[in-house]
Design goal:
This is DUF559 domain-containing protein. This protein has 313 residues and is an alpha+beta fold. Helices cover 42% and strands 17% of the residues. The protein folds into 3 domains: 59 residues, no CATH class; 134 residues, no CATH class; 97 residues, Endonuclease, Chain A.
Length: 313
């Protein structure tokens, strides 16, 4: 709020600077004792407002987003921090904004029950996961991303959060694995770990065995695997190739996390098409978790290219 409403004393100047640095939001414990009466007068006159039990805002209008963030942390028990999608967005994650404010607070503490604030509890909130200097106090990006994925409304959104965070270079897969290992039990733990592996790339995340099972379950002709194609810049391997039907398949583990890698992938895809093949692409997630859809797509593609449904190739 405006500095003229704060007494022009040494402590008044300190309070003014504090209000300016915290978007006009204060906790009772931050008010110098000699200025408590001043704060009470402002509240009584309704020039200031109270949020929760012990948090004051130095105006009487609607709170802006920055003020809501400050109030959510200050109204929560000691040791609490902005978390999940809220903290991740503050640290740069794009594409997953939410009007709710997510806060993690220590287990066994009291819920502040502020409108628009979603509270989660955790026993793991030390400096390894909570930044000691950022304001408002918030979790570090690796922990925020893991939590945001665990709290997402759907599995596909959880995967998208993890992949986007790596793509946007907010975190590395190693940092996410470390945060997940210290997180303790959480929703979607296996899915998050699997998605981190996908983000790291490599066929640790490309399930060749699962793909082979799909081919056999749908009684499809066996493809050649890891077929070598010669390109001007070197050799390239197709994950699966039905040369007789002009059909090739690639299973993407990385989700095209890098623009340069994406360009290279497109160049390879173009070469495959120039060679006369049709290229199908599936994510490793689809191979693992949507095998029926993958199998039906493969079967339709092969039939469209002349497979009679019985011929062994």
């Amino acid at each position: 709020m405006t500095a003229e409403l704060v007494p022009a004393t040494c402590d008044g100047g300190m309070l003014t600077r504090l209000l300016e640095s915290q978007a006009g939001v204060l906790h009772r414990s931050e008010v110098p004792p000699e200025l408590i009466r001043h704060v009470r007068r402002e509240l009584h006159a309704r020039r200031w407002q109270r949020v929760g039990r012990d948090v004051f805002v130095s105006h009487n209008g609607a709170l802006g987003y920055g003020q809501r963030l400050q109030a959510a942390v200050k109204a929560s028990p000691r040791g609490s921090a902005l978390a999940g999608p809220t903290a991740a967005e503050l640290d740069g994650l794009q594409g997953f904004s939410t009007s709710d404010i997510f806060v993690t607070q220590p287990c066994g503490t009291r819920h502040p029950r502020l409108p628009g604030v979603v509270v989660h509890y955790s026993r793991f909130l030390d400096e390894a996961d909570v930044h000691p200097l950022r304001t408002p106090r918030r979790c570090r990006p690796p922990r925020s991303i893991v939590d945001a994925a665990a709290w997402a409304s759907r599995d596909d959104r959880a995967r998208a959060i993890v992949l986007a965070a790596v793509q946007q270079r907010l975190v590395t897969p190693d940092q996410l694995h470390d945060a997940l290992s210290r997180r303790g039990p959480c929703l979607r733990h296996a899915l998050i770990a699997e998605t981190i592996d996908d983000a790291a790339g490599g066929i640790a995340s490309v399930p060749e065995r699962e793909f082979a099972l799909i081919v056999r379950a749908f009684h499809l002709p066996e493809p050649a695997r890891q077929r070598i194609l010669e390109r001007p810049d070197g050799r390239y391997y197709l994950d699966a190739d039905w040369a007789e039907f002009g059909l090739a398949v690639e299973v993407d583990g990385r989700g095209h996390l890098d623009v340069i890698a994406w360009d290279s992938d497109l160049d390879r895809a173009n070469d495959i098409v120039i060679d006369g093949r049709t290229l199908l692409r599936f994510t490793s997630y689809a191979v693992r978790h949507r095998p029926d859809s993958v199998g039906e797509t493969l079967m339709r593609a092969l039939i469209a290219r002349g497979w009679d449904g019985h011929t062994a190739v």
